């Protein structure tokens, strides 16, 4: 399972830039929103941000390790409910006015059947006319990931990340070393494998349409570039 070991270090490795971009992108869509759902909420930062602006937030993730980190940081928030769930089986106590799925959540859906199921379950969890704002991997990132590798070296943490791309399948292999003594002389090794799928934007738009979603807006890198040159594609959908 992905993020069993990386969960405590996820935000440290991600930094703040993407969260800031998402907050700017979501702000215009919050008017009239009382109930929001953060799908693939991870460490809970966006759910906590939403909780300051709407009445209730449902924060959903399949990873118990990610949810544990989120709850440790934001479990005190009275208007956030944390739910461990596969998105194919999503069921909320009430319909949401706005759904969010940020940072490649849909790219972890690997088959067309599974994607259709997720789109249908999210549709059933949003009120008529409600919006879903999400992102998917863009063509530029897909190209860069081919046989790509990077590393991140810190006093307490070393990450070596290698990717392999075969067709639309992207395999991320992560080897990490975590310091287990304050002087940094002894490290514990861990290994994780994350599998994603690159979804062609045109094929994905067709799936949205088939499952009851209207594409209101699509942007490359939050409006900074054309979709066919984007690292990240940002979609705004509306339930028909």
Q: Could you estimate the helical fraction of the residues in percent?
A: 25-40%
What oligomeric assembly is this protein in?
A: single chain
* Order of secondary-structure elements: HHEHEHEEHEHEEEEHEE
Q: In total, how many beta strands?
A: 11
Radius of gyration: 18 Å
Low-confidence stretches: none
Overall pLDDT score: 95
What is the general shape? globular
Largest sheet: 7 strands, mixed
Number of helices: 7
Placed side by side, the strands forming the largest sheet appear as 3-2-1-4-5-11-10
* SS-derived structural category: alpha/beta
Strand content: 35-45%
> N-to-C terminal Cα separation, in Å?
35 Å
Which features does this protein show?
single chain; 240 residues; alpha/beta; 7-stranded mixed β-sheet; 4-stranded antiparallel β-sheet; 7 helices; globular
